[in-house]
Amino acid sequence: MLNEFRQDLVSGEWVLFVVGRTHSLREDEDKDFYQIKKQCPFENFQESGQEIIWNYPDSENWRAAVIKNKYPAMRQGLCTTEKNYGPFKLFDPIGDHEVVVYREHDYGVYKFSISDFTDMVRIYKKRFTELVQKSECAKYILIFHNQGRSAGASIYHPHSQIITMPILPPDIFRSINGSFSYYKEHKKRVYSDLLEWEQKERKRIVYENKEFIVFCPYVSKYPYEMRIFSKESHAHFNQMPDSSDEFYADALFTSLQKIKAALDKPPFNMFIHTAPLKDDFGVHMHEFYHWHTEIIPHLKIDAGVEIGTGVAINVVDPNDAAETLRKASI
Ligand SMILES: [Zn+2]
């Protein structure tokens, strides 16, 4: 029975494993989340007043549309600097917030084929690259996909989001600093050590193709959490060569089919962690950082310990999670 604190090698965060005592994962309240087409703001962009940025692959036979988020978390404007209010620092949320809308209302990621994921990857990469060029104030770009209401999706129609931020988000700050410290101490990437060890132990690997590897991290904060790494190490997501798109799509497809089969279509958050856009480490970020994807199924609610201390409690041994996912037939 696994009962110990484990420290994340990159962020330094502690995770408490309490496996066996309570195995009460949350019942999925999401099964009934559905919105009819008639009320869907993504059925007719003109009618619902959405501003289209780009249709993929073209406006006639589009399979996905990139639109401006009508209720953005960031707003358009000129780059500003930090301000103060008493002892506090303030920053204007200048940035872009885009939505990638997939065409079919009832055809979400659990139904996507590898070719649909390849479309998704190409759209992500093109918008990422264009936003890097366009956004002078952006320090970070997050690409994410919320599936299900309890994972934060307020609209049923399948969509992903891309947001640029003028600050460095705390999770990225911790990871980038942690991996830079590791690099200074060991003269190598923390991610290379992590991947080498996972490949050697092979207990937590869920899936692998020629270019990508999927595993449940040894220090998983959440039950059945999965990470997808490219075997070629790049710091930024858009450095991935086009020839890798299909391998990445295959890894995404397989990961989501695995949680669909093993956990009965749970709500989840999926996001890409990539290096910050601005580099002031004195050494190129690919020397110590490695972009990757995280998939976090929503099976557990954070409670007193998590919110009160920042220590995540995980009730599933990552070895067991990986075995369940690996064996799930898709
Ligand atoms: Zn719709």
UniProtKB/TrEMBL annotation:
GO terms for biological process: galactose metabolic process. Pfam families: GalP_UDP_tr_C, GalP_UDP_transf. It comes from the Bacteria. Keywords: Carbohydrate metabolism, Metal-binding, Nucleotidyltransferase, Transferase, Zinc. Residues 66-169 form the Galactose-1-phosphate uridyl transferase N-terminal domain. The keyword Disulfide bond does not apply. Belongs to the galactose-1-phosphate uridylyltransferase type 1 family. This is Uncharacterized protein.
